[in-house]
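Lay summary. Proteins are chains of building blocks that fold into shapes, and those shapes determine what they do. In this project we predict the shape from the chain. Here is one chain we studied, written as its sequence of building blocks.
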Amino acid sequence: MGRYGGLRRLTAFAAAFGFAVAGGCLTAQVSGTGHTMRGAGAGPIAEKVIVDTDIGDDIDDVFALGVALASPELKVLGVTSAWGDTELRSRMLDRILCETGREDVPVSTGVSTLARHKEGAAAFSQAAWARAGVERKHGDAVAFLLEQARAHPKEITLIAIAPLTNIGAAIDRDPAGFRMFKRVVLMGGSVYRGYGAKGTPASAEYNIAMDPEAARKLFNSGVPIFMMPLDSTQIDFGAGRMDSLVRISTPLTDAIQVLTAEHRLASEWPTPTLFDVVPVAYTIDPLTCPVTPRHIEVDEKGYTRATPGEPNAEVCLEEHPEAFYSLVMPRLLEQRMVGTRACLER
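And here is the predicted shape, written in a compact code that computers can read:
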């Protein structure tokens, strides 16, 4: 029957008896919280996660990290910078964690790809804000990923919201260690819908197209993959919701305002699209983006096609904005994360 065939039966059993399946595990849902309960009498258990991000280009990574930090259902073990100028990305991450009082979360620097000159690579639109942060040294992201996976076998969800270069490097370095991850929840790919309105043909989605070889390694790694492609992630953060952030002032919401303005100036894109927040929301509550099994193949241009064969991914193929925003907005508006020291370079 195979692993995904068994997962389909487990999911059907769960639906019949009021349970849910997350990462291949049968869990009882606590209504309205997104928490899981494991075992009789157990309390809510925070999901261990690592976020691999190319923060600083598009604006959705900032939203994604903010939601992850503000969610008690998640224990963020670390954040790894990916793609392009990874040192500057780490500096930006340091500043966000400092501003929000979350310096308990370590930052590691991923594989720099500045020398690749990849056609279509995005510009670092929020570099000014990032450079104003304090410069620090960081550890190696690939080593961090593997160390954490082996330290917490089958317990960590890797939330991948960047080109997959760090992940490909981790698989090359220690494939058995990488298989110690519980699952990868991925923003990437385009199965039936491309960039734009519904009905647009599939595209070579950015996170996959920047490093298709690394993506192929992931899909062949044997680690369970939960894939949030363009089909389900093109959820706009409209003016009304942005205005709601203006009505409160926390370090996170203030940073979002400034970084959104920097991104708008660089890209001339008026409204944030929250691609990368969808996998974070899914990790907290799978009902925000229900998945279906597919066999996904990645070609040399970065297209992700559903083909016949044993499923190698669980894929969310429709956006669910109402469920998504009912989870995301309270976390942005009710959090009061505040740092206690200066976060700028003097």
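What the prediction tells us: Residues 294 and 308 are 8 Å apart (CA to CA).
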